[in-house]
Structures are given as structure tokens and as C-alpha cells.
Amino acid sequence: MKLAFTLGALSLLLPYAGNTQVLATPSQVITPVIQQAPSHLETLRERARKAKTNIENVRKNDLTSIIYDTASSIKAPLFKVPAAKRILGTTGQIVISEITTPDGFLAVEREWIFIGNKEDSRYFQSSNFTHIDAKFLKALDRWRYIVKVKATLDELSLIRDNLPAELQSQVGRNHIYLSQQKQHVSETLVHKKGNASPTCQSPLRVGMVDSNIVEKHPMLSHLTIKQMTFSPEQTENGSEHGTAVASLLAQKLPLNSRLFNASVFYTRSSVSQGATLSSLIDGLDYLASQSVETINMSLAGPDNPVLAKTMTYLTHQGIQIIAAVGNEGPASLPLYPAAYKETIGVSAVDESGGIYRWANQGDYVDFAALGVSIPAAHPNGATIRQSGTSMAAPQVAATYACYLQRQKSRMAALTLLQKNAIDAGEPGRDSVYGFGILH
User: Fold this and answer.
1) Which of 179, 236, 252, 290 has the fewest CB atoms within 10 Å, i.e. the most exposed one?
2) What is the largest CA-CA distance in the chain?
3) Whole-number mean pLDDT of the chain?
4) CATH at residue 316
5) Residue 35: what pLDDT?
6) Concatenated DSSP letters of 86-150
7) Is residue 71 part of a domain?
8) Judging by DSSP bridges, how do beta strands 344-349 and 320-324 pair with one another?
9) Beta bridge partners of 301
10) What pairs with residue 106 in β-bridges?
11) For position 109, which CATH number holds?
């Protein structure tokens, strides 16, 4: 039985929505009045958890549950990051020295990120630190510092010793986040003119954090695209992943919508793109300054206190992050930003509703969408089939943006997503499909 959380319950929750706010818009497209409600997504999840407990109690002695539990215990291999590399610039110099951290993720060697006030920089004035870059993030109203530490200090606990308690959650490694797309199916398709069934008619403003976009692709012709690059200078930054993700957003965005892209990826190999945390933070600040209320992030990596803080800042500004849950298999550790409580985590299914075999699973999965062998734009002007949770997330992002415009309330938009999701897997919200599949 499908888990029901109806709009009728909305009236019980609206007192907690906070004051309304009109977001400033630098263009001719007017964004709706949004009720600030950072806890709404967690409210839906909590109700689903309670409903799930009731369902489990009913089917506790059911033979089918024994069969399901046995099957679900067969897991794919645990998460494993690709080998660290030295990324060379256009003239052959080393631009990024990747390392594998003790917890098994990638990061820039000895680089750390701190966000805070301008006067907080005094904590990094000792000989143990070398300032690399400082930038004021206007939309987030914070300073972002990149510092390099001595090899003997390259641990979070040691760096935190230099900070007062209230600032210790604002420093983290300059981690590297990877695109969530498996190698595409090499089938070239004939592009059909026009976008497929947009979910709303009025123009939208949507943001994405990805690689470059080839703007002249026919699948993007009905959009106005604005993009800025935040990847490290002199690194190669391809356009295949970003163009594909943009085209999947475009399928559900109506004529004259505006798509803002923060290009953050650098090329690691022919099948792998990476983004430093510093690039992510700068890119998210840029998107927030464009008054978008929805940002798609088809990338994943480790938990990081600086990224977590940024998610909180964005949420309190009325911005919803939709992120791919990752392609590391059912036994993977939770990946971020999808696993943050403020984020809508999206998995991928095939046309028959079967879960993508490499999709992450866990209680941070909120929805699933088509993301297996799905037609998407290629920079060369063709349309090819792509797979991965990267391809599923933008479809949920565009749908949420439309519902938000229509409902003018974050809670109502999230509830409408849940209401229109087709339950799959176990009854109610589960760790595979979340609330269900969105078409």
C-alpha cells in the first residue's frame, strides 16, 4: 500500500513555516514567494518512518518479509574511490595533487577550507599555515579561506586545536567530489525537436553544479543558459556530463526558462570528473546570488563540515538542493551532499522500474527517477544513452522547481512530490526507492 501524506496535513504544519520572503531577482523572471521551512523535508521523512514501523509490525511474521530480507542482504562491494592522481595543467605543471585520506576519500594534498568572518582569519596566521586564497561569498555572507598546512598538521583534530569551539565545525579538508555517471551506452539516437512534456508552463529559474554545458545543443534551444567556471585554473574541464544533465533538466523546463550553471569539474580521466570543495562552495554561492530556489548536484563524495554548513545556509535562504545518491552500490557508505538532511536524495531506475544496480541505498534516498539508458544530449550535437544517478537527479529537480512555483510553499511542493511518487519495493518509504518513483 502506498504511503499517504496528503495536503490535508499541511494546515497542521504551516505555523512552523516562518515568515514569507520575496527573493530579489536580477532578471525579468519573477520568482514566487517562498515560505521558509528548513525542517519540512525531515517532517515528511519522520512521518514515513513512523508509518514504516507500523507496516513492519503487521508483516513481522510474514514469510514474504523473510524472503525479502534474505534477498536484500546480498550486497555489492563496498565503496571504493578511484586512485589519487596528479592533475596537470595546460602547460604540464601540477595543478592539483590528489591524495587518499585516512577515511578513504579523495582530497587536495594538505589543503583545508575554512568559512567564517573576516576577523577569523587570524587563527590561520601562524607558521603552520600558508594562505592560498580568501574570497568573500556575498550570497552566503561568509568568507571562504583555503589554507595549506604543514605535513605534521594534516589532521582535522590538530587543526581544530587552533580554533575556538564555536568555529571548529567550520573547517574541513578540501575534499574532491566525483560525477555520478557510469560510462554511457554507445548508441547514438536521432534527436526529436522540442522538449518533452514540461511539468509547468511559466518560465523557471533553476541552478546546477556540474561541468561546462554546450549551449547550442538542440535539446537546450528553448532555454537561456548562463554559466561561470569555478574549477581550478589551467585544468581541463569537459562538457559531456554537464550537457547531459542540462538536457534532462531541459526536458521538463518550459520555454524561456533560465538555467544557471556553476562549472566546477576538472577532468581526471576520460570517464571521471572531480570537483574540489572550494570550487563547490564558490559555485553554490554564485547560484544563490542568481535567486534560484532549486539547485541540482549530480555529484557525490564524503561528509565535510564546511559542505554541511553550506547546505544549512542555503536551506535557510529557501534554496532546495537535489542530489544524486551515488553509483557505488547498495553497500556503499552514505555519500554527500545527498545524505544531508536538508537535501533531496535521488536514485535511478530503468524503464521497468527496476533499481539501477550500482545505485547507493540507505535512509537518505528520497525518490527515484529514470536514469538507466536514458537519452541525453552529447556535446557533439548528438543524443546518446546515459546511465547513473546523475541522470535521475535533474528530473526530480525540474519537477520540484515546477511544484514550488505552483504551490509557493516548500512544504506543499515536497508533499506534492511525495503524493505523485509511485510506491515501489517495500510498502512505504524504503532505503531503495525512498518515497517512490517519479515519472
Assistant:
1) 236
2) 66
3) 84
4) 3.40.50.200
5) 45
6) EEE-TTS-EEEEEEE-TTS-EEEEEEEEEEE-GGGGGGG-STTEEEEEEEEETTTTEEEEEEEE-
7) no
8) parallel
9) 336
10) 100
11) 3.30.70
Among 123, 145, 176, identify where a domain stops: 176
168 and 302 in a common domain = no
Q: Do the beta carbons of residue 327 and residue 357 sit within 8 Å?
A: no
Residues 259 and 344 in one domain: yes
46: confidence class by pLDDT, cuts 50, 70, 90 = confident
The reply to whether 210 belongs to the active site is yes
Look at residue 357 and tell me if it is in a domain: yes
Residue 305: all three cell numbers together: 563540515
pLDDT digits over 310-354, tens only?
A: 999 999 999 999 999 999 999 999 999 999 999 999 999 999 999
Q: Which helix (H) or strand (E) holds 249?
A: helix 240-250
Assign 48 a pLDDT band (cuts: 50, 70, 90): confident
Last residue of a domain, one of 153, 176, 199: 176
Range of the domain at 108: 86-176
Has 241 been annotated as catalytic? yes
Q: Write down the pLDDT at residue 9.
A: 38
Q: Are residues 233 and 92 in the same domain?
A: no
**What number of CA atoms fall less than 13 Å from residue 241's CA on the CB side?**
35
> Is 316 considered catalytic here?
no
Distances (CA, A) of 439 to 313, 400, 422: 30, 12, 8
Catalytic residue among 241, 279, 282, 430: 241
Taking 50 as the threshold, does the pLDDT of residue 33 lie above it?
no
Q: Which set of grid coordinates corresponds to residue 333?
A: 557508505
285, 390, 409, 430: which is the annotated catalytic residue?
390
Task: Assign 221 to helix, strand or coil.
Answer: coil
Q: Which of 120, 210, 282, 430 is catalytic?
A: 210
pTM of the model: 0.84
Q: How many domains does the chain have?
A: 2
Count of CB atoms situated within 10 Å of the CB of 30: 13
CB 130 within 8 A of CB 139: no
Is there a single domain that holds both residue 160 and residue 188? no
Give the per-residue pLDDT at 54: 66
Q: 1, 426 in Cβ contact below 8 A? A: no
Question: Do 99 and 229 fall into the same domain?
Answer: no
DSSP, collapsed to helix, strand or coil, labels residue 131 as: strand
Confidence (pLDDT) at 74 = 39
Average pLDDT over residues 402-423: 95
CA pair distance 402, 422, nearest whole angstrom = 18
Residue 336 lies in a domain: yes
Q: Do 263 and 168 share a domain, yes or no?
A: no
Q: Are 363 and 331 in contact (CB under 8 A)?
A: no
Would you state the pLDDT for residue 337?
98
